[in-house]
Amino acid sequence: MKKFIIGTIITVFVLILTISIQQGLLFAKPLPYDDEQKGLDTQITIHLSHVVAENTPKGQAANKFAELVEEKTNGKVKVHVYSNSSLFNDENEFQALQKGEVEMIIPTFSKMTAYVPNWQVLDLPYLFNTNEEVKEVLTGSIGEQLVNELEQIHIKGLGFWYNGFKHLTSVEQPIHTFEDLQGLRVRTMPSKTLEKQFEVVKATPIPISFSEVFSDLEKHAIDAQENTASNIYSKGFYKVQKHMTITQHGILGYAVLMNETFWNSLPVKIQHQLLDAMKETTDWQFEQAALMNEQDMEKLKQLDDFDVYTMSPQERQRFKEQLTPVYDFYRAHIQNDQILAEIEKIVAP
């Protein structure tokens, strides 16, 4: 009986061995190594931090980008989006990116002017007239030039996104002329050009974090601020202010940035897929930004306790002329004004 059992085991083993050899399961040659497949067998996670609400042009674009990345990489790359300063605020997000504490951020380009001074050109008042002009500049060769300047600070720039034109809001005193800004404490982003913009009209610029704007308006620590209709509505700034003036005096946009070391660690195939997702998101985002600002402006106009005033063409021209010294300030504080000259060739007179 013992011999029968041993014989049966040996027979089964030989049978399994024969089938395995026939199927090529044993002694199979290893597959040839493919550089493009390096790293593609593991999940890659990207943490993306931004400071605004999800129902804003930037917030929606961040989610759209995450969806497209997962789609284009067949799930190999997962982008986790952290909105509303839930991970980092706009005071510490860039340092976090540099340290590798987060892989991606989307700061305003105004926030980046301390590191890439030439970007101040995008903060100049009344430089653009239409959304189409902004898109041509930010997604064309000029935008590429500006993004390439990030190389000197070892940051990978993926491109620019857009929110829309900025307007002025105030707590108590309506702003119908530039003289109405005199003596007001106006929240601004930390851009020397933006600060100069308010100094010229004899207001006091107060650089503070975006996450603190609502509470500072509520406490009357500031009297006014500049922003897009989508941000004013989504962050509820209208709840702690009474007046808005449609000035369209500047633009609000964002730079999509990635930690350079992380970018360089990615397989080339993944890099191309991320860039494809970025381009598709950008095209979608410009259209979405225009639509959202239009819709949110209408919502603001419908509010009972919030006055929306449209500056007359004559007053807008006076405001524009009053801010001319800001251009002189800009030219005096940059290496050259070639980029400004290129933009002025694109925008309508």
Structural overview:
By secondary structure, the chain is α/β, with parallel strands linked by helices. It contains 13 helices and nine strands. Strands 1, 2, 3, 4, 5, 6, 7, 8 and 9 form a nine-stranded mixed β-sheet that branches. The longest helix has 34 residues. The protein is globular and about 60 Å long.
Q: Would you kindly provide a brief summary of this structure?
A:
The chain has helices at 2-23, 57-72, 93-99, 131-138, 141-148, 192-200, 213-218, 229-234, 260-265, 268-301, 313-322, 324-332, 338-346; strands at 44-49, 77-82, 104-105, 155-170, 185-188, 204-207, 224-227, 243-259, 307-310. It is α/β, with parallel strands linked by helices and 349 residues long.
Q: What composes the largest sheet?
A: 9 strands, mixed
Question: N- to C-terminal separation?
Answer: 103 Å
Q: Which structural class fits the helix and strand makeup?
A: alpha/beta
Determine the fraction of residues in helical runs and give it as a percent range. Answer: 40-55%
Strand content: 15-25%
The general outline is: globular
How many β-strand runs? 9
Name its key features:
9-stranded mixed β-sheet; 9 strands
